[in-house]
């Protein structure tokens, strides 16, 4: 049907590059989504993620590359012909129109039959849980309610794509968490292919079918939330989503065995370990919640003696900072997240000696 | 194509139409804005410049006229005179305006709204009236000169000349200084003062290290605006200038008195140079400001301080008394039978039937002209500002139009008027051997050219007001509408205009009030069958009929106050609509 992408791909972006003068905002980005998929574009501020969204919306003309929707090349289409619903961080609700009129705004343009519009608006208000609020003006609604009106307005035109640009950033933490699942459920129910831009990793992990991680204009990883969290492709991804301890100056001794100073660590193959040559210097990473302490087993394998240098209370858990001697006076710091209950039970305190265990299958190997 | 799982009760738009019709409409409209500014600003000014390089017969003579100008002390002395009065005016007006604005923003004196409203009073009057009032106060038979008609010993301030000009111009520039400095003083960060306090800085040190640097840009802007106003005003100097020649009265004398259009053009260019320099410097300074006010600040709420508040209240009351006294004198004088001999009150001078100048016909012509200027001016200015501010494409074209839109700020009314005579009265132009007849000649001596000159004269301030209002709207409104397939002109009508209504009404009022009061641009452009009120004031004053001139000025002020009241009611109506937060 089309030369670009798989037939099952609803939206595919090919080698998208956008330059603003000398600055390259997007560098050769390709990805695709299936119909009804919820895709999150995640990255630090200024990484170019909003430019991806704007290019898909038709707000920025790409320097090169193509955007294909339903097998049609839409790269040259103006915004008004792409049939996308957009929700901005500011909501951009028209302040002089009621919630109803805001939702009906795009519909009236398309349908001369006022009755059909009215029914559709009532239906949409119900869908977003705002029945009976239709005659309120945006300023009379709470932030969360305004957000839902904006969503209903975007959905009113039955868009090919729903584009969300940091839609939850302006809301309070509590409302934000509630709206996350509401938006997700609504999106599933309506089956609209959705792309959301966010800088909030938690938002991406909880909402997305797949996450696209962009750093300095380049696509660094794409995968399900589980994949990007468990198998971060680069140290950047690893530290951007969740946190990770990195131990440098590590050498591969033989297959599955790595050396750090005097220590020997067993690391299961896969997870990047296989690609490394013997003797090659590498960097290994382990997430704080994967660091096991003391009697948690391990039969002496990957057990390291450390000194507790600091304990930080974090409510349900404690973050321990552990000093691990490497060789001589050289040491590295490893963070470990330990449930509060366990810290109390073991009576953990600063300056205590504490043996830890790094599980064989939870260590990632990266090029140094 | 894959089947869609989405319930789609409405038909989706096809994805195939690639021609962006709206983009072309926008391009066309912005092109029209550029063309409009070209025709009403650039070409007339170009015509004026080329006229100054020709002799009266129309032969090119290079800079000969300028050489003659600078070799004739009777002419070139006016440059020094103009600079002298405008610099002194600027210093006084900005000084007085600063104290007044400081009282309005940084103290807890009562009646701030009253004081602010009263300070704006001179904006509603033709500057001719400032001169006329001064004549009644300090002229040969003035209230003070005669010691309240002989009750106390009188004193003469030698009104005619620089003294009179400076007093009138200070009064004229004062409201602008107060406005600009109030805004600047309002835009401050309370945290800076808290920090200064906590570091133990004295009040005086805080004033010089926090207050003054904080309003730096407002202060510079106030200085330039006051300077330009004083440097280019024509009304007041015409009445109280006496034998003290300044540039603006020279232009009038050359053109109307001696019919020497070429020398009028030369003086106009001389007048234009400092104004353009002030304009450019101000633009550069304002551009820097944008980068500085970025962080969110905490508004400063003044605390009551007895001594300070009392001093400032006294000052404001004193200024208010001066303004009230000033205009009451002219109101009184317009009602007195024969100043200063028969002080019976009545409406003798409001019967203009045996006067030159056009009487009530002129007054109603002025109202019509001001109304048209407000109607067309507001539509043109706001639409142009919208297209320039809210379009995403055509950056270069938009920047050119923006520059052209603020350019009239540098053009004195007399220069606009004179260049319009040259441009619209021209038979045509020979370009590369081809004669092109003037397609706009039909506008000459019509209401059209008067309205056009007013729109251009007051264009920039209106344009900046519109731009400021538009900048406050969410920049995503247009994108959202676009994504829903709603054409931009529909969103303009349904959303942008209603939301910006307060600013639009303000622009309309600004056009009306200024068109009523202005004399400088229209004095060259009115025709005998289309007399105007402000011109009538000038002509009656010329003829020595100062009381009717004063009465006509009072009518202009009343019309403007009425317009202001209607504006107040209209904005109240707009604000009462159920739109909380807007």
TrEMBL record, chain A:
<dbReference type="GO" id="GO:0015697">
    <property type="term" value="P:quaternary ammonium group transport"/>
</dbReference>
<dbReference type="InterPro" id="IPR008995">
    <property type="entry name" value="Mo/tungstate-bd_C_term_dom"/>
</dbReference>
<keyword id="KW-0547">Nucleotide-binding</keyword>
<keyword id="KW-0813">Transport</keyword>
<keyword id="KW-0997">Cell inner membrane</keyword>
<keyword id="KW-1003">Cell membrane</keyword>
<dbReference type="Pfam" id="PF00005">
    <property type="entry name" value="ABC_tran"/>
</dbReference>
<dbReference type="InterPro" id="IPR017871">
    <property type="entry name" value="ABC_transporter-like_CS"/>
</dbReference>
<dbReference type="InterPro" id="IPR027417">
    <property type="entry name" value="P-loop_NTPase"/>
</dbReference>
<keyword id="KW-0472">Membrane</keyword>
<dbReference type="InterPro" id="IPR017666">
    <property type="entry name" value="AminoethylPonate_ABC_PhnT2"/>
</dbReference>
<keyword id="KW-0378">Hydrolase</keyword>
<keyword id="KW-1278">Translocase</keyword>
<dbReference type="GO" id="GO:0016887">
    <property type="term" value="F:ATP hydrolysis activity"/>
</dbReference>
<feature type="domain" description="ABC transporter">
    <location>
        <begin position="11"/>
        <end position="241"/>
    </location>
</feature>
<dbReference type="InterPro" id="IPR003593">
    <property type="entry name" value="AAA+_ATPase"/>
</dbReference>
<dbReference type="GO" id="GO:0005524">
    <property type="term" value="F:ATP binding"/>
</dbReference>
<dbReference type="InterPro" id="IPR003439">
    <property type="entry name" value="ABC_transporter-like_ATP-bd"/>
</dbReference>
<dbReference type="InterPro" id="IPR050093">
    <property type="entry name" value="ABC_SmlMolc_Importer"/>
</dbReference>
<protein>
    <submittedName>
        <fullName>Sulfate/thiosulfate import ATP-binding protein CysA 2</fullName>
        <ecNumber>3.6.3.25</ecNumber>
    </submittedName>
</protein>
<keyword id="KW-0067">ATP-binding</keyword>
Automatic annotation (TrEMBL), chain B:
<feature type="transmembrane region" description="Helical">
    <location>
        <begin position="491"/>
        <end position="513"/>
    </location>
</feature>
<keyword id="KW-0812">Transmembrane</keyword>
<keyword id="KW-0813">Transport</keyword>
<feature type="transmembrane region" description="Helical">
    <location>
        <begin position="312"/>
        <end position="336"/>
    </location>
</feature>
<feature type="transmembrane region" description="Helical">
    <location>
        <begin position="261"/>
        <end position="281"/>
    </location>
</feature>
<dbReference type="InterPro" id="IPR000515">
    <property type="entry name" value="MetI-like"/>
</dbReference>
<keyword id="KW-0472">Membrane</keyword>
<feature type="transmembrane region" description="Helical">
    <location>
        <begin position="28"/>
        <end position="49"/>
    </location>
</feature>
<dbReference type="GO" id="GO:0055085">
    <property type="term" value="P:transmembrane transport"/>
</dbReference>
<dbReference type="InterPro" id="IPR035906">
    <property type="entry name" value="MetI-like_sf"/>
</dbReference>
<feature type="transmembrane region" description="Helical">
    <location>
        <begin position="369"/>
        <end position="388"/>
    </location>
</feature>
<feature type="transmembrane region" description="Helical">
    <location>
        <begin position="400"/>
        <end position="422"/>
    </location>
</feature>
<dbReference type="GO" id="GO:0005886">
    <property type="term" value="C:plasma membrane"/>
</dbReference>
<dbReference type="Pfam" id="PF00528">
    <property type="entry name" value="BPD_transp_1"/>
</dbReference>
<feature type="transmembrane region" description="Helical">
    <location>
        <begin position="442"/>
        <end position="470"/>
    </location>
</feature>
<feature type="transmembrane region" description="Helical">
    <location>
        <begin position="83"/>
        <end position="105"/>
    </location>
</feature>
<feature type="domain" description="ABC transmembrane type-1">
    <location>
        <begin position="79"/>
        <end position="282"/>
    </location>
</feature>
<feature type="transmembrane region" description="Helical">
    <location>
        <begin position="159"/>
        <end position="185"/>
    </location>
</feature>
<protein>
    <submittedName>
        <fullName>Binding-protein-dependent transport systems inner membrane component</fullName>
    </submittedName>
</protein>
<comment type="similarity">
    <text>Belongs to the binding-protein-dependent transport system permease family.</text>
</comment>
<feature type="transmembrane region" description="Helical">
    <location>
        <begin position="519"/>
        <end position="538"/>
    </location>
</feature>
<dbReference type="InterPro" id="IPR017664">
    <property type="entry name" value="AminoethylPonate_ABC_perm-1"/>
</dbReference>
């Amino acid at each position: 049907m089309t030369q670009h992408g798989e037939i099952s791909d609803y939206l595919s972006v090919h080698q998208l590059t956008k330059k603003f003068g000398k600055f390259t905002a997007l560098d050769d980005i390709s990805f695709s989504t299936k119909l009804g998929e919820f895709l999150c574009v995640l990255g630090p501020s200024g990484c170019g993620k909003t430019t991806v969204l704007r290019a898909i919306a038709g707000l920025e003309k790409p320097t090169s590359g193509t955007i294909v929707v339903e097998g049609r090349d839409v790269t040259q289409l103006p915004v008004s012909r792409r049939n996308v619903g957009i929700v901005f961080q500011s909501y951009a609700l028209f302040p002089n129109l009621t919630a109803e009129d805001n939702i009906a705004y795009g519909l009236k343009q398309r349908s001369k039959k006022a009755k059909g519009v009215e029914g559709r608006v009532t239906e949409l208000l119900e869908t977003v849980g705002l029945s009976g609020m239709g005659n309120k003006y945006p300023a009379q609604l709470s932030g969360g309610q305004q957000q839902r009106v904006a969503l209903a307005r975007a959905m009113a035109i039955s868009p090919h794509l729903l584009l969300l640009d940091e839609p939850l950033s302006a809301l309070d933490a509590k409302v934000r968490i509630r709206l996350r699942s509401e938006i997700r459920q609504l999106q599933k129910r309506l089956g609209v292919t959705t792309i959301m831009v966010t800088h909030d990793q938690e938002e991406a992990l909880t909402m997305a079918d797949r996450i696209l991680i962009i750093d300095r204009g380049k696509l660094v990883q794409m995968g399900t939330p589980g994949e990007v969290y468990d198998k971060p492709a680069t140290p950047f991804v690893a530290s951007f989503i969740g946190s990770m301890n990195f131990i440098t100056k590590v050498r591969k001794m033989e297959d599955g065995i790595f050396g750090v100073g005097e220590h020997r660590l067993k690391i299961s193959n896969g997870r990047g370990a296989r690609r490394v040559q013997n003797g090659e210097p590498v960097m290994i990473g382990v997430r704080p919640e994967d660091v096991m302490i003391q009697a948690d087993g391990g039969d002496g394998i990957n057990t390291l003696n450390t000194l507790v240098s600091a304990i930080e209370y974090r409510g349900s858990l404690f973050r321990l900072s552990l000093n691990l001697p490497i060789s001589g006076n050289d040491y590295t710091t490893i963070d470990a997240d330990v449930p509060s209950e366990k810290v109390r039970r073991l009576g953990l305190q600063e300056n205590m000696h504490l043996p830890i265990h790094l599980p064989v299958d939870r260590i990632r190997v990266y090029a140094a | 194509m894959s089947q869609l799982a989405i319930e789609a009760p409405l038909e989706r738009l096809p994805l195939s139409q690639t021609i962006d019709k709206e983009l072309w409409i926008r391009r066309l409209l912005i092109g029209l804005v550029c063309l409009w500014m070209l025709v009403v600003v650039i070409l007339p000014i170009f015509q004026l410049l080329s006229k100054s390089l020709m002799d009266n017969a129309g032969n090119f003579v290079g800079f000969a006229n300028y050489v003659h100008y600078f070799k004739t002390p009777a002419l070139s002395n006016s440059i020094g005179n103009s600079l002298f009065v405008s610099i002194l005016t600027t210093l006084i007006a900005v000084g007085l305006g600063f104290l007044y604005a400081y009282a309005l923003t940084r103290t807890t004196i009562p009646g701030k709204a009253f004081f602010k409203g009263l300070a704006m009073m001179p904006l509603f009057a033709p500057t001719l009236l400032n001169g006329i009032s001064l004549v009644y106060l300090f002229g040969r038979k003035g209230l003070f000169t005669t010691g309240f008609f002989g009750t106390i010993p009188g004193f003469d301030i030698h009104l005619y000349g620089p003294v009179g000009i400076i007093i009138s111009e200070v009064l004229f520039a004062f409201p602008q200084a107060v406005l600009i400095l109030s805004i600047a003083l309002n835009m401050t960060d309370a945290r800076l003062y808290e920090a200064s306090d906590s570091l133990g800085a004295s009040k005086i040190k805080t004033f010089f290290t926090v207050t003054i640097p904080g309003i730096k840009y407002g202060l510079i802007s106030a200085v330039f605006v006051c300077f330009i106003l004083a440097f280019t005003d024509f009304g007041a100097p015409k009445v109280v200038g006496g034998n003290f020649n300044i540039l603006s009265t020279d232009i009038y004398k050359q053109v109307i008195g001696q019919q020497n259009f070429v020398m009028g053009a030369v003086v106009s260019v001389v007048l234009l140079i400092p104004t353009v320099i002030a304009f450019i410097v101000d633009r550069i300074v304002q551009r820097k400001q944008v980068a500085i006010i970025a962080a969110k600040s905490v508004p400063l709420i003044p605390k009551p301080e007895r001594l300070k508040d009392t001093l400032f209240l006294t000052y404001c009351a004193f200024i208010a008394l001066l303004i009230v006294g000033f205009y009451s004198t002219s109101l009184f004088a317009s009602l007195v039978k024969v100043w200063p001999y028969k002080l019976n009150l009545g409406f003798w001078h409001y019967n203009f039937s045996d006067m030159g100048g056009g009487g009530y016909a002129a007054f109603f012509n002025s109202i019509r002209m001001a109304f048209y200027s407000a109607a067309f001016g507001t539509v043109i200015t706001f639409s142009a500002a919208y297209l320039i501010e809210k379009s995403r494409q055509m950056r270069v074209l938009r920047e050119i139009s923006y520059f052209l839109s603020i350019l009239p700020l540098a053009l004195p009314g007399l220069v606009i008027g004179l260049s319009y005579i040259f441009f619209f009265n021209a038979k045509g132009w020979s370009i590369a051997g081809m004669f092109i007849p003037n397609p706009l000649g039909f506008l000459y001596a019509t209401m059209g050219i008067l309205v056009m000159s007013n729109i251009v004269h007051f264009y920039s301030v209106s344009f900046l007001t519109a731009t400021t209002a538009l900048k406050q709207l969410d920049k995503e409104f247009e994108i959202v509408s676009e994504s829903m397939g709603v054409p931009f002109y529909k969103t303009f009508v349904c959303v942008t205009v209603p939301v910006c209504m307060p600013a639009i009404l303000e622009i309309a009022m600004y056009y009306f009030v200024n068109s009523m009061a202005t004399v400088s641009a229209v004095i060259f452009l009115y025709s005998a069958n289309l007399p105007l009120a402000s011109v009538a004031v000038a002509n009656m004053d010329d003829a020595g009929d100062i009381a009717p001139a004063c009465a006509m000025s009072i009518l202009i002020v009343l019309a403007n106050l009425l317009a202001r009241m209607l504006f107040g009611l209209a904005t109240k109506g707009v604000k009462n609509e159920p739109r909380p937060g807007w």
